[in-house]
Amino acid sequence: MKINQFAYIPTDHQTILQELKDTRFLDEDNLHIQYPRQLLRDLLVRLYSMHANLSTRLEKISGLLATPTENANTYTNKPGSVDKSAFYNVGLQLLGFLNDLDFSVNDPLKAMKQIGLPIMDAPEQLNRDQVIDAWYRLLNTRNKYGQLLIDYLAGKGYYQQFLKNPTFKKPLFFNGKAQAVFDTSRLVRETVYVESSLDTDHDGRRDLLKANIIRPAETNAGFKAPVIFTADPYSEGMNVKWAEKYAHDNSRPLKHKQPNNLTYADVEFHYQKVDLPAPRTIKGKTNQAGETFTKLWSYSLNDYFLARGFAVVYSGGIGTRDSDGLRTTGTRAETLSATAIIEWLHGDRTAFTNRTDQIAIKAWWSSGSVGMTGRSYLGTLSTAAAFTGVDGLKTSIVEAGLSNYYDYYRENGLVVAPDGDDADALAEYTFSRQQSAADYAQIKDQWLAHLRQMKIDQDHDSGSFNSFWDARRTEKVNHTKADMLLVHGLNDWNVKTSQVWNSRNRLKTRPITQKLILHQGQHEYLNNFRSFDYTDIVNLWLTNKLFNINNQVNEHLADVIVQDNAQPETWTAYPDWGGSESESTIYPLNDLINLNENTIFPDQLPEDDYKVYSNDLKKWHHDLYSRDGSQMDSHCIRLLTKRLNEDLVIDGRPSISLRVATNQEFGMISVALVDYGKARRLTESPQTIDSMRILQGYHWRKDDLKEFLPQKTETDFKRITQAHMNMQNRNNSYKVDELNAMTFYRLDFPFQPTVWRLLKGHQLGIVIYASDMEYTVHGNQDVYYTVDLKKSHLNIPKLK
Amino acid sequence: MKINQFAYIPTDHQTILQELKDTRFLDEDNLHIQYPRQLLRDLLVRLYSMHANLSTRLEKISGLLATPTENANTYTNKPGSVDKSAFYNVGLQLLGFLNDLDFSVNDPLKAMKQIGLPIMDAPEQLNRDQVIDAWYRLLNTRNKYGQLLIDYLAGKGYYQQFLKNPTFKKPLFFNGKAQAVFDTSRLVRETVYVESSLDTDHDGRRDLLKANIIRPAETNAGFKAPVIFTADPYSEGMNVKWAEKYAHDNSRPLKHKQPNNLTYADVEFHYQKVDLPAPRTIKGKTNQAGETFTKLWSYSLNDYFLARGFAVVYSGGIGTRDSDGLRTTGTRAETLSATAIIEWLHGDRTAFTNRTDQIAIKAWWSSGSVGMTGRSYLGTLSTAAAFTGVDGLKTSIVEAGLSNYYDYYRENGLVVAPDGDDADALAEYTFSRQQSAADYAQIKDQWLAHLRQMKIDQDHDSGSFNSFWDARRTEKVNHTKADMLLVHGLNDWNVKTSQVWNSRNRLKTRPITQKLILHQGQHEYLNNFRSFDYTDIVNLWLTNKLFNINNQVNEHLADVIVQDNAQPETWTAYPDWGGSESESTIYPLNDLINLNENTIFPDQLPEDDYKVYSNDLKKWHHDLYSRDGSQMDSHCIRLLTKRLNEDLVIDGRPSISLRVATNQEFGMISVALVDYGKARRLTESPQTIDSMRILQGYHWRKDDLKEFLPQKTETDFKRITQAHMNMQNRNNSYKVDELNAMTFYRLDFPFQPTVWRLLKGHQLGIVIYASDMEYTVHGNQDVYYTVDLKKSHLNIPKLK
């Protein structure tokens, strides 16, 4: 077990004294205690003060061993200094670690070092001030259940007893993080309708956008809450079944495309100025909302902050149930339907209490400081909103967000969407107005026409870039003023890493602070892991950005944190990703071991194999990379380096340069980089290691504790990254070039960026193949490919 | 989609009027409305009255289609009768069903019939009284999300607005079920220590037992709450890692046992009268507890009742953290540590505020009526407590509970525990005192000695019944006064169906009401299924048993409800299980199709196969039953009936009578009944079909909606039931008989009871084999078995 902590801010003794007073661990009653042991006793009695009864508290203390032979009650019931080992024996038990399993009371420091828990730099005997400092650090140490001890205590009711005391600070900050001192049982839930500057359903009225607000009851007494806003197109319902019929069948042939001479200017999208209907007349004003709601899906990261004084706002945006408009999958209109909510939260836009009465209501309870959160489509909208530079948005926290829809659904002139997804299918999936039967009856014809047009414009058949896709490059506009925290999974093959790579590079041109976290998962949340203090990082971040607390997060938090793929529970700080700390290394392909001695390969599989693979993509992936012999052996080229003499860390965006010929007038090439070598690799989906263990507040939400655990058995290989190219788009994704049969062409294209450690003894592999059963069209066509390995090479950015 | 509803109580119009008044759907303001449409409008406005704003409510009504062309707002804004189809169009939408997906507004009744939703027996035009009756029935109809509409509305805040009105009833009952009108945000959580009449750790003081109480705040104002009590030995922590080293290795040889002449009198356990320490002196009294707690694991069935006026109490029992005593795995002492809590709740026993001060505290907030709930070990304790006839216990709801530990860990003289589990390992697993380091330090030596003695006494090596196991037959004592609701999975191979079969038969001798529910799952909860209204049944049951409301549950609820294995989402009422409605049918084994023509088979597998199967029990099970040819073909006898001409329903406990010889002086026989025939069978684990969809109260817990769905592909077979016997225990499980090599013996033994429908065209199969890789010891010994099929037969209880 390893615990990594990035969000602790080193704090001086004077500040510690003040913060311990603020949190009621110190006050006039115990500050005079001179004997370290008696002070520790008093601190322990306070730690258990959620129990009204003193005897109960002492019973709890009696249950802790201070030394192998003495419990903490008797140990602290005498004068003298505190043995460091006694302090940490007690500390480890408070953190939930078990004697004789996680540590031994005979040598607590040994286990702490192994786990990675902080130990005070002090002599073996702690004096009074050292006990205070060590106590502070202990409260700010993560426990066995993935929480800071202070957060765990808050969940157990520690702060509850002080909340009615008028001198108790609210909001309260401890080591730079907002504390769970708000009453989640009294949260106010209300709905408003923000009037946007859009009329996407062309009904002659500006689109009203429903916003669901959860705010602390304390706002009713004057507290102005900072706001976490999540633009969530899924929040009002998903048309799972209805969208199924919009799925595209990718088991179809690749076709020759008519060459063109398009330049970017030809495909650039230009916004047309449209006449907007006049705003609705404001017929009255109120501070009182008239609608409430119950949230079904719970975004646990947001819930955590509800106990800490933040308000949380959700909005589905245009085309979602109870809002106006149409879904468009990633256009500026969707972005503006997110920024409209922020403008209202910042005081710059009108909202109404309902869709009928035109009674305006202000976000009078909002501090005006907004941070966005969300994963996937939600993260995409956080990114897009930040790029606009909208006032009031202080930060976006983007988990697996897009910045470019072309790169989501296409790659170098090829369709690359799994499951036949495309922009039209996603539009239908999120158009939850359809679930409101009477509303849908009025808009049905327009909606179906809109979908038909999307289907044409997205040009699924060609896979080329066009102005439809240019309109869905949210990165195009970059007026970003918000600080950005980007989070992405290095094994995310839904939203791929080029999205965060591009976002990050675009943001580098802006005068903002950005941070990056890369983990070993697929398309996952990170806020319930034991080995990594993501929640605390976000708390530190939002406390700074939205509460304006100067907690030095910009300076103190590492710019890039990467989870190691080769060692479980290991997270490392880096100065950059694919920056000057890595150097380009060329691998001529002809110098590598050619596993099956192939240089020519047919794409076509025997019909039986094709069927088996179509129904079992896992088997196809396995056979494609496996070096143990499979039906794929003759359908790809597998190249391997020698065994590595030392660890090799790929850091950034590898690329490949190939000379390829085909026997047809169309063709595609796919390439995967593979880590070969026996290892127990990490699971890409989080595994629950303790259910309902994380207490997000006092009798508030609980969350499962998770981890990417090592798999139970060793595997011989793992794909690191991959890339695909339509040979007719060898120059770019919109210009279609001629392709003559039996003619060699040079293809230069990049992989999805990564950070990957290949261990000493492993081999780096390159697997070159054509159609991708999971990603691209795959018609099992009679096509041969020849690769001129002598004139081909791989380029790896290698960490120096 | 099918929805089965068992917990609706037919209600007359006068009672309907009163209950609709109680729930505020009717009052003086709308009872005078004569036009049916306008009354429906008023009811709809009230349904949405959680929204303060009238315009908002009308907007919601406008979102519903009443007819293909008119929304419910305009439809109800005129005089006249209500079209039945309009009523149910609106009704279906209120229930969450989607037009053009789940139903069509052109013919709502068609979908309702298919789904199984109740339609009022009324003409096409509903008059005023019919609208009222249909509205009442609609509120008591289950929605798409597995909830009654009234419960869904409560979750959305419908009742919330009335709670401060002193004329509003609390508790409130609707169609015989307690309503979610209690304020879960103010629940009181407190801990007491009940003094038991036990001293299982022999420290000269009676064992104190920690009890964690969650009670409605309304009890502080005089409300006396009925109590749901769950005795949960896992609640204070589980020693997962520590228990691992107590696992027994079952990959070991079966041994010859020394014959004996034991009678039951020789192995009967007799309780020794022990001198009990005097009770603690009561040094004071209080009504105020001094300790609080935070519950991690949430038992969603209990949580549901917290919103409905029930208190919920959890206690780990002897040997769990913060209690005294030792874990014993199923002895009377464990039962008494559960009944001690009931006695306190009923006013018959002392509890203290803490372990130190001897200040007594009564359960002053308790109505004295207690019902127990729980699954597995928890259900075992509910059963055991009921058998004692303890005062105050009005009912036990037993999900997959044991009544006999021998039948859990052994079968006919064989060990049958998967994963090498046994009584000692479970004792260690639940001995959570070990997690309190200082407490454990004092008791460690005694605990280890106790475990060593358990290991000797349980006699894992022989598998025979002895007085250790007789002491763990909780069914022995049967003074049951409580009404019983038993629930069990027909595919539960953890707690097997003989447990509920035996409990039920024992309970038949008592003057109580018992009901039984058998589902198609493994070891699962049922309270979050869409197709079955288990939660409502339990509500009806507990409202009757604990609130003493005369809701006719005894008379109205079917005695036995069984989920069909052959049709998804189908639950059927039966008068009994394996009673007079089924008749015994004999199948001579020699008349059956002998698939591999085996009558003799070796148990021993080639070493490679043995290894593969040891690591892949799923494959072993597949190969054992498969008729497609496998490595198991020569290691078993597979017998099949002809294809069935009509459905065959096995109802009760089949048995087999075999003549068997072996070439050794030891031997075991296993037999499985198998349903052969292609079908998409149900998953045995619940699948989530909609996450966090069930609202258990207003801003209270949510639960995932689940179902046993049909598997994605067809399978050729499924095991129905199985049985195992040590040939030396052919008379009973304690008397060991001689076994001579090459000599035929008659073995008569029963299968686990079941209810199973074999469809017409399927074949009933019998697979006879020896060692069971999953269940029994399996040493891969060189043993041959010969079965004299001419003198062997199967006995099936067949539903007439």
TrEMBL record, chains A, B:
<protein>
    <recommendedName>
        <fullName>Xaa-Pro dipeptidyl-peptidase</fullName>
        <ecNumber>3.4.14.11</ecNumber>
    </recommendedName>
</protein>
<dbReference type="Pfam" id="PF02129">
    <property type="entry name" value="Peptidase_S15"/>
</dbReference>
<dbReference type="GO" id="GO:0006508">
    <property type="term" value="P:proteolysis"/>
</dbReference>
<keyword id="KW-0645">Protease</keyword>
<dbReference type="InterPro" id="IPR008252">
    <property type="entry name" value="Pept_S15_Xpro"/>
</dbReference>
<dbReference type="InterPro" id="IPR015251">
    <property type="entry name" value="PepX_N_dom"/>
</dbReference>
<dbReference type="Pfam" id="PF09168">
    <property type="entry name" value="PepX_N"/>
</dbReference>
<dbReference type="InterPro" id="IPR008979">
    <property type="entry name" value="Galactose-bd-like_sf"/>
</dbReference>
<feature type="domain" description="X-Prolyl dipeptidyl aminopeptidase PepX N-terminal">
    <location>
        <begin position="1"/>
        <end position="158"/>
    </location>
</feature>
<dbReference type="InterPro" id="IPR029058">
    <property type="entry name" value="AB_hydrolase_fold"/>
</dbReference>
<dbReference type="GO" id="GO:0004177">
    <property type="term" value="F:aminopeptidase activity"/>
</dbReference>
<dbReference type="GO" id="GO:0008236">
    <property type="term" value="F:serine-type peptidase activity"/>
</dbReference>
<dbReference type="GO" id="GO:0008239">
    <property type="term" value="F:dipeptidyl-peptidase activity"/>
</dbReference>
<keyword id="KW-0031">Aminopeptidase</keyword>
<dbReference type="InterPro" id="IPR036313">
    <property type="entry name" value="PepX_N_dom_sf"/>
</dbReference>
<comment type="subunit">
    <text>Homodimer.</text>
</comment>
<keyword id="KW-0720">Serine protease</keyword>
<dbReference type="InterPro" id="IPR000383">
    <property type="entry name" value="Xaa-Pro-like_dom"/>
</dbReference>
<dbReference type="Pfam" id="PF08530">
    <property type="entry name" value="PepX_C"/>
</dbReference>
<feature type="domain" description="Xaa-Pro dipeptidyl-peptidase C-terminal">
    <location>
        <begin position="539"/>
        <end position="795"/>
    </location>
</feature>
<dbReference type="InterPro" id="IPR013736">
    <property type="entry name" value="Xaa-Pro_dipept_C"/>
</dbReference>
<comment type="similarity">
    <text>Belongs to the peptidase S15 family.</text>
</comment>
<keyword id="KW-0378">Hydrolase</keyword>
<comment type="function">
    <text>Removes N-terminal dipeptides sequentially from polypeptides having unsubstituted N-termini provided that the penultimate residue is proline.</text>
</comment>
